[in-house]
Fold these 2 entries.
Entry 1:
Amino acid sequence: MEKLIIFSAPSGSGKTTVVKHLLSVMQDKLAFSVSATTRNPRPGEENGREYHFLDLNDFRNKIKEGAFLEHEEVYAGILYGTLWTEVRKIWAEGKAVVFDVDVKGGLNLKREFGDQALAVFLRPPSVDILMERLTKRSTEVEHQLQERIAKANYELSFESQYDTVVVNDKLDETFATCEKLVSDFIAKP
Ligand code: ADP
Ligand code: 5GP
C-alpha cells in the first residue's frame, strides 16, 4: 500500500529535527516530500532540498495547473504546498512519503488518505518551551517570530484530531517513540 506519514505541529515544536532523524535511520523505507513555498530560504537551506522556493506568481500558476495535492497560506502572504510530483516519485520508489506540514494541511491529507496515512501531532512540553526553542533557533525576524508564537495556541487546539500525539520533551525519547510509531505503521499490511 502507498503510505503517508504526516508530522504537524506549531512552528518550533521539532518537526524538522524529528523528520531529519527518521530519514537518516530509515532511508530505505522513507523519503521526504519537499514542499513548495514562497518564503525566503534560511541560511543553509537549498532549493530542492528543504523546499522548492518559488515566487508568488510561479506558486499561483502551479495552483492553477493543479500541481498541488494541498496548499495553505500558513502565514500572512506566505504560501506552502505539497506537490503531486514529489509524492508520486516517492511512491514509485516503493517508499512511504513523510510530510512536514501545518496542522490544516496535515488534516486535509489525513482526510483524503484515511488509513493510508499516519497523522502525528508533535507537541512541545509547554508554550513557554516552544517560545524558548523558536527564539533560540534565531531563524525569523521579530515580527515573523511573534506571528508564529501567536498562532501556536490555535494550532495546539487541533491535536485531538490527529491519530497520535507525541510530546517532544527529551529528544532521544521523542526519536525512539517516533521510530517505533513509523516502523509499526509501515509494517502494517
Ligand atoms: P519545527 O520544524 O517544528 O519548526 P525544529 O525542528 O526546527 O521545529 O525545532 C525548533 C528548535 O528546537 C530547533 O532549534 C531544534 O534544534 C530545537 N529542538 C527540537 N527538539 C528539541 C528538544 N526535544 N529539546 C530541545 N531542543 C529541541
Ligand atoms: P517553515 O517556514 O518553518 O519551514 O514552515 C512553516 C510551517 O509551514 C510549518 O508548520 C510547516 O509544517 C508548514 N509547511 C511546510 N510545507 C508545507 C506544505 O506543503 N503544506 C502545508 N499545508 N504546510 C506546510
Entry 2:
Amino acid sequence: MLRPRSTATREKVNLDGVWRFALDGAAGPEPWSGPLATRLEAAVPASYNDLFTDPAIRDHVGRVWYQRTVRVPRGWTNERVLLRVDAATHEGRVYVDGALVAEHVGGYTPFEADVTDHVRAGEEFRLTIGVNNELTNVTIPPGTITVSRSGRREQQYKHDFYNYAGLSRSVWLHCVPAVHVTDVTITTGLDGTTGTVGYAVETNAPAPVRVRALDADGAEVAAAHGTDGVLRIDGATPWRPGAAYLYDLVVEVLDEDGDEDGDGVLDVYREPFGVRTVEVRGTEFLINGEPFYFTGFGKHEDTPVRGKGHDDAYLVHDFQLLEWIGANSFRTSHYPYAEEVLEFADRHGIVVVDETAAVGLNLAVQGGLTGRPHDPTWAPETFGDATRDAHARHLRELIARDKNHPSVVMWCLANEASTAEEGAREYFEPLVGLTRGLDPSRPITFTAWLGATGGNDLVADLFDVVTVNRYYGWYIANGDLETAERYLEDDLRAWIEKFGKPVMMGEYGADTLPGLHSVWDVPWTEEYQRDYFEMNHRVFDRFDAFVGEHVWNFADFATSNGIHRVDGNKKGVFTRDRRPKSAAHALRARWRDLNGRR
Ligand code: GCB
C-alpha cells in the first residue's frame, strides 16, 4: 500500500493530536452517531494504556473510541479523498459521521478508505474510530480471552511484551486525482556498475505511464514509458549498509496524448529506492555480492507513557544509539514497525529484518515450563486453517507495505512458533510459498525457539537463513556460563551441520538491573550480562557459517504482569529511558571492531 505523499497532484493533512476518547459502553450504544459523550482525551499517535491513571482503561479488554472533527481542505473539490490509518491495534472501525467506511483486522499494518462520497471540500465531518485490542486464536498475534473468578474479562497471550493498543501511529486525510497510481513495485539489481531497476506500476484506470529515476541531487538518470519495465542506471551508486544512497522513482500518469503538449500529467507519485542486491549463497548472506555479518538487536516499539506510539524523538535517538554502539541492523521483533522507522533506516543505511506479528504460535512453551502435557499447537481448535489464513493476510499486507525499502533485506515469518511439533510443516509450507511468490527478491527466515533444535525442527529447510533464539546462561544453566557455553556450541553446531545454511542468533540476552554489581557470576548484575555476551561471542566466532548476532533486547520494555518479570523485561542493553548498562560498552568495542574489519 502506497504511503500518502505530497506531490504536484496530491496533498495530505495529518490528523495527529488530541482526540476525544472513551471506553466502549461508556459512550452510548452508537458512539459514532454524535459527539462522543466523554471528558477524556487521548493523544494520537500513542497507545492509550499508560496515558490514564484509571486501571479500568489500562486493563480494558475490548473496544475503545476515538473521535475528532476534520475539515476537508476547500481546494479538494475534484479530488478523491482518502482516509488512512497507519495502525489501529488490533482491529479498527472507521466512521465518517454516521457511515462505516472501513474495517480492518491486524494492529501493525495500515488501511485506508475512499471517503469522497461522504465528505465535501471545505466542510467539516466527524471522524470516529473504534479500536479493539482483543486477541484470539484467529488473530495475529494470537491470544485467548478468559473470565476470572471475580468476573473480569482478561486477555491472555503467549508473548511477554505488554498488549499496548490504540491509534499508535498517524492518521491521515489525503487526496489523489481521479486517475491515479495505486501501486508501485521496485526491484533492483547490479550488473557490473550498472544498476537495474525493475518497476511495475498499477493505476486505478488504464492510462499512459511515464517513469523517471532521479539521483540524490534530483538529476534524471533514466526514464521510460509504460507500466512495467527495467531502467538502467549507468555508474549507479549502490545502497550499502552504513552508506545509504537513495534514488527517487517519479511515476507519472499521463493524459491520452501522453503529455505531448507538456500539460497532461494527471498524477505524480514519488517512491524512494536504493539500488542493492540481497542473496544467500551457501552459508553466506550477501548484500551487493559482499558477505554481511549482522550486528544489532531485536527491538520493540516501546517507550514510557506512549507505549507503542510512534515518536520521532525516540526514532532519532534510537538510531543514534545504534550507530554509537556499532549496530548495523535490527529485527522488527515482534511486529512490523511504523513506516517512519523503515524510511529512517533506508536513509541511514541500517539493515532491517522485517518480522510479522506472528509471535506466540506455540503451546509447547507452556508444556516445557510446567512439565504438563500441552494442547497441540497445530490443530483446528488451536491454530488451524483460519489462523493460517489470518497469517497469510498479514504477510500480504506487510509485503505490500514494505516491499520497496532497501533497508529490508529479509522477511521473518514468525517468532518462536512451535516448529518441532507435528503439523508445523503443513502450517508453514504454504506461507513460505506465498512469501516467495509475493517477493522472490528477498531471503526468508523464522526464529527457532529453544525446543526446536537442529535434530527435531521440521521447517528450517524451507527457509534461507536459520535464526535461533537461545538463552543458555539465562533460562538454562542460569549463573553457570561454563555449562552454558557447551550447550550453546553443541546446539549451533547441530543446526549448521544439518542444514548447511547461514545461521544467525536472533535473540540472546540476560535480565540486568542497572547498578547491581558483583565480582562473581551473579545473574541480574551488570557484569553477568557482559560476561554472558562474551561467552556467546566466543562460541559464535568458532563457526564460519555464522552470519550475525542480534542481542535481546535493545532496551528494557514493558511486559504484562507476571512472576517472571519485575517492572518489565530487563534484558535491554539500554534502560527503557535509553541509558547504557555496562554491557553496552563491551558490545560497542566488539561491534565497532567487527564492522571495521568486515
Ligand atoms: C523470547 C521471546 C521474546 C522474549 C524473550 C525473553 O524467546 O522471543 O519475546 O521477550 O524470550 O526475554 O524471555
